[in-house]
Write a structure and sequence with these properties.
- This is 4Fe-4S ferredoxin-type domain-containing protein.
- Pfam families: Fer4_11, Fer4_4.
- By secondary structure, this protein is an alpha+beta fold.
- The chain has a single domain, classed as Alpha-Beta Plaits (2-Layer Sandwich), CATH 3.30.70.
- The protein has six helices and six strands; from the N terminus they run βαααββαααβββ.
- The chain has a four-stranded mixed beta sheet with strand order 4-1-6-5. Strands 2-3 form a two-stranded antiparallel ribbon.
- The radius of gyration is 17 Å and the shape is globular.
- It starts with a strand and ends in a 13-residue tail after the last strand.
Amino acid sequence: MSKRLYIDLEICNKCPECVVKCSYLYHPGNNGITRLREEGAFNAICRLCDNAPCVTSCPNDALKRDEKRFITRSGFKCTGCHSCVAACPFGTIFTETIPFTNSQCDLCIKILKEGGEPACVPTCPYGALKFGEFAESAEEFKVFVGERMLVRALPWKKPLPVKKK
C-alpha cells in the first residue's frame, strides 16, 4: 500500500480559517488545500444530480462532468459568482471552496520523492490532514479521490420534517 494524503472534510469544514502552509512551487501564497477540499467535496459529497443544476447555472461554463459523473471546475473560466452554490439543491457546494483565485496542489511530489511529507500536514492545527497508508472504508465514509488522496466526508442525509403541534 502506498502513502496518501488523508483529508477529513468533517474537521476541515469546521475550521474557522485555513492556516496550513503550502509549498506549491509556482506561486507563493497559494493555498492548495482549498483545491483539494473542492475536489474532495465534488467527489465525496456531491449528490451527482441527473440534471446537475450547478452545471447548467454557471454562466461561464466553468463546471463540467467527467466520465465518472463527477463535477470539475475550470479555474480559468470561473469568475467566483457562486451561481453553482445557489443552484445546488443539496447545499453540497461551499462558497469557501469556490474562490475567485485559483489554487493548485501537486501533493508535494518533489518532497515525497525526497522521503518527506506534504507541507500542509504538519501545519494543520486541527488534525484534519494526515499522510500515511490508509484504506478506503465505507463504514467510516472514507473514499479515494484519485490515486494519492483519501477523503472522509459524512453522507448527506435528508433532514426529518418538523412536526407542527
